[in-house]
Amino acid sequence: MEWAELIGRVAAHGDRGAFKLLFEHFAPRVKGFLVKTGMSADAAEEIAQMTLLTVWRKAAQFDPASAGAAAWIFTIARNLRIDSARAAARRAKAAVNAERDETPEVALSPETMMSRSDDVSRVSAAIQQLSDEQSTVIRMSFIEEHPHGEIAERLGIPLGTVKSRIRLAMARLKDLLDD
Amino acid sequence: MTINHHPPEDLLADFAAGRLDEADRLVIGVHAAQCPNCQRFIAAIEQLAGAALEQAAPVAMADDAFATIMAAIDEPKTASTPAPTSSQPVPLLDDDLPEMLRRCRFAKSRRVAPGVKMQPIVLPGADKSRAFLLWSAPGTRMLEHSHTGTELTLVLKGSFSHQGGEYRPGDFDFGDGEVDHQPLVGSDMPCLCLVAMSGDLQMHGWLGRLISPFVRL
């Protein structure tokens, strides 16, 4: 069973069995992902729960043609993490300034960012053209947020090579995606 | 609209990963909303992030996590408060702004220097950087300056130029401590920019040093 299909069943008729499968697969991974990027286990648990709740509520907005299920769920978790950081900052400032702030979140969701399917297939094709080495350094540096020194150690390559590999990977991705 | 100047790739990747400070995120977001190239780049990083999420080592959820979510689902949904629309408490430097900016809250605009006005954007989550609209009269020559932090600039209207080239609507300019420039605003119309800035400007030349205490951005 494809994850995208399960999200479709949640959207179409609130299929709780399908949702449970999504929960069992993705909730622990969202939590693990967040813990890995330095979040406390409690905070990660809360965001992972909210992420799955949002998957249920926004299932109808998921467009399998525009993003993979995992990428879509990543953006939900990312936006919730941003929201929670903003809320914390707002509470800290509200202690000083009682004025209430209603500024909405500006993080872009994939459904607003990517709508044209020709763009979507270009993105997938570009990623497939990256070498494993290139996608690994992008993932470690930007997504898992490891410092360059740590990446060098883990991959057993010099620091300078890490930096140049990241630079080349980003430039290649940009080249593949630019008009 | 032809966009010739884009944000550096690492800023786009940090945006996609959700790691940017709020002010920087706003400027990148407004640029990306107008720029298909950068949208695709961001989507690519999101795809890679999805693959990383798929491969992340699972950490067990709390025993009652699923029950908690199902209880929230069965709760009657509280009506979410609609986003405030165009009820700005203060007049804007320009009423014709991109949608993402219209949803922001602004503080009062003020004069910075002759022919230059700025209007701060209220961002409660902004940590290191601040965001504002910068309005400059046609032909304004900004003082030669560099930065102690970073300066992200998106042209909304009009144009300016410096050593890096000419910047028109949709174009993005990145400045940091290594950049020393003196932008000149195009002479045909005022220039409106969205700016996210961290650190301070450092003015150069005797005039810059003389007036820098008065130029607060």
From TrEMBL, chain B:
Residues 111-196 form the ChrR-like cupin domain. It holds the Pfam family Cupin_7. InterPro entries: Anti-sigma_ChrR, Anti_sigma_zinc_sf, ChrR-like_cupin_dom, RmlC-like_jellyroll, RmlC_Cupin_sf, Znf_put. Residues 10-39 form the Putative zinc-finger domain. This is ChrR family anti-sigma-E factor. It comes from Bradyrhizobium zhengyangense. The lineage of its organism: Bacteria, Pseudomonadati, Pseudomonadota, Alphaproteobacteria, Hyphomicrobiales.
